[in-house]
Design a protein that fits this description.
The structure holds two protein chains of two kinds.
Chain A lengths: L1 H5 L3 H20 L1 H8 L7 H24 L9
Helix pairs in contact in A: 2-4
Chain B lengths: L1 H15 L14 E10 L4 E6 L6 E5 L1 H5 L7 E6 L7 E7 L6 H21 L4 H10 L4 H25 L5 H62 L8 H7 L6 E4 L4 E4 H18 L3 H12 L3 H25 L5 H21 L6 H28 L7 H47 L6
Parallel strand pairs in B: 3-5
Antiparallel strand pairs in B: 1-2, 1-4, 2-3, 4-5, 6-7
Helix pairs in contact in B: 1-6, 3-4, 3-10, 3-11, 3-13, 4-5, 4-13, 5-10, 5-11, 6-8, 6-9, 6-10, 6-12, 7-9, 8-9, 9-10, 12-13
The chains are: A mainly alpha, B alpha+beta.
Chain lengths: 78, 445
């Protein structure tokens, strides 16, 4: 049990961190295209919604892994 | 009972696609999105092409809109003066702000703090984020839309985390969320009625007075309850009103497993409806939803605040569809807020596992009371705008600044309480852990 608790998610943090960082880099280096596409309205409405979902999965997983890596985890139920 | 959930879920989906389903301080009045082709300052007009149209429009500039520099060939949002239907431009704002490092740092900071608070109490952050972004120069509609679009993924991540901790009552969250969506509709109608009758200042005054009244009464009670519980050493007694309502057998009765209670749907739906009504009025439905779930339905503060995240997801998603369809979301702002708030919300969610339950009420009550002060400070400005109170411009400007500062303080104070009690809880838990592990024959190095 004690050994298992000590295992830290280095790989998960790295992988999700790289995907998240590259996604953010792609977004901010193509601001004109991104803002143009996401504010077209109509059928283009799916783009900002999908982007919000995509980032919440990728960046959410990254954030979760970072917190675990720092040893910040929920209290175990007794 | 599954039948009810399925029916409710179907209703939710249908409601989500009704245009106009949104919550959270929709910008009032008429606004147009498009590009300015040319400016004729002498004639006081501009030539404008609205998005999705080839037609050129010539619009008159109002006094304030015509005084500054006007960008051409960039996407802008024009607010039209006064009540709906007017064709005089009140102000022109560039739709996409050039984000500097200071702007980014500000958005990340507020995003993190807002996430932390909403992970812990079920809602929060929006009331500082929207005016905060507007103070950076983001048009009101874009600020509301971008904030709304960050709300549902954040709430989804928070709800998922708290579901894993066994705190979310999904059925309660779904029923509340769907009834709230209906409440939002009424809230919007009320807002529109007030706006058309008394204009922008009348609408602002109504929102502020509703804010102050609800936050003082509900927030005051939450805080008083938290204080009583802490005096009893952290033991929460079940609320009398909820117990009385649970004893009334008015079919259909619903059993909420995680919340551990059984109550009629006729008492559950109105709580959700009021949450939506308030979300459309004061932009923070959770300030009604969470206390409603605690004191009317009888859920614990842990389950109520966790299930509120499901409500926030449903309402945020419905609202985001509407804003996305009208093309108002600046996805850069949304994703910037998310970059920090996804850390905050998960930290806030796990924080609830370390603190005593009444701490949720302490944080919620404190924030609500301070926000009430903040909104109270804004009331004289709106009364002056309506001609009820004769205040000088300098005084009202100072009061509005003070109002925003106090609002920001409420969020920061909430975050400080959360972090400090969480750290304390973690330390205590770590102190106990080695002893427990040793007693089972293991040790931690």
């Amino acid at each position: 049990m004690a050994e298992r608790r000590k295992k830290r998610p280095y790989a998960g943090t790295g992988v999700f961190g790289i995907i998240s960082l590259s996604s953010y880099t792609a977004l901010f280096s193509n601001q004109e295209i991104v803002t143009g596409m996401t504010t077209e309205g109509g059928a283009y409405a799916v783009i900002p919604l999908l982007a919000a979902f995509y980032f919440s999965f990728i960046h959410g997983a990254f954030a979760s892994n970072v917190l675990s890596l720092l040893g910040i985890e929920a209290k175990k139920k007794k | 009972m599954k039948r009810y959930v399925v029916v409710m879920f179907a209703l939710l989906l249908s409601l989500s696609f009704v245009p106009g389903v949104f919550a959270g301080g929709a910008p009032k009045g008429d606004f147009k999105k498009g590009t300015i082709i040319s400016v004729n300052k002498e004639a006081g007009t501009i030539v404008f092409i609205p998005d999705g149209s080839e037609e050129r429009m010539t619009l008159r500039l109002g006094a304030a809109a015509g005084s500054g520099k006007i960008d051409t060939h960039k996407k802008v949002i024009l607010s039209l003066e006064g009540k709906r239907g007017a064709e005089v431009i009140a102000n022109i704002k560039r739709m996409f702000l050039d984000l500097g490092l200071r702007d980014i740092a500000f958005i990340l900071f507020v995003g993190f703090v807002g996430g932390l608070v909403s992970g812990f109490i079920g809602s929060g952050g929006a009331f500082v984020l929207t005016p905060g972004m507007m103070s950076l120069g983001v048009p009101a509609a874009v600020a509301v839309a971008s904030n709304m679009c960050h709300k549902f993924p954040k709430a989804m991540v928070g709800a998922y985390k708290r579901f894993r901790y066994g705190q979310v009552d999904l059925k309660l969250g779904l029923i509340m969320g769907i009834s709230a969506t209906a409440g939002v509709q009424l809230g919007i109608r009320v807002q529109e009625f007030i706006f058309n009758r008394w204009g922008d200042a009348g609408s602002n005054l109504y929102v502020s007075l509703a804010f102050v009244f609800i936050l003082v009464t509900v927030g005051g009670y939450v805080f008083y309850d938290a204080w009583k519980i802490s005096k009893r050493g952290g033991e929460a007694a079940p609320p009398k009103l909820a117990l009385r309502l649970q004893n009334i057998n008015l079919p259909p009765m619903i059993r909420f497993k995680t919340a551990g209670l059984r109550i009629s749907i006729w008492f559950t739906v109105p709580v959700g409806f009021c949450t939506g009504l308030m979300a459309a009025t004061i932009a923070v439905g959770g300030f009604v939803g969470v206390p409603g779930m605690m004191y009317v339905i009888g859920a614990s503060s842990l389950v109520a605040s966790a299930s509120e995240l499901v409500v926030a997801f449903i309402m945020g998603f419905g609202g985001s569809i509407k804003w996305a369809l009208s093309g108002m979301i600046d996805i850069r702002l949304t994703l910037l807020i998310l970059a920090a708030s996804l850390f905050g919300v998960q930290l806030g969610a796990l924080g609830t596992t370390y603190v005593r339950e009444h701490m949720i009420k302490v944080v919620m009550g404190s924030i609500m009371l301070i926000v009430a002060v903040s909104r109270g400070l804004a009331v004289p400005k709106y009364m002056t705008d309506l001609g009820i109170l004769p205040l000088r411009e300098g005084t009202t400007a100072f009061l509005m600044k003070a109002s925003f500062t106090v609002m920001a303080v409420s969020l920061i104070l909430g975050a400080v309480i959360i972090l400090s009690t969480m750290i304390k809880g973690m330390r205590e838990s770590r102190k106990k852990e080695p002893a427990m592990v040793t007693s089972h024959g293991h040790s931690r190095s």
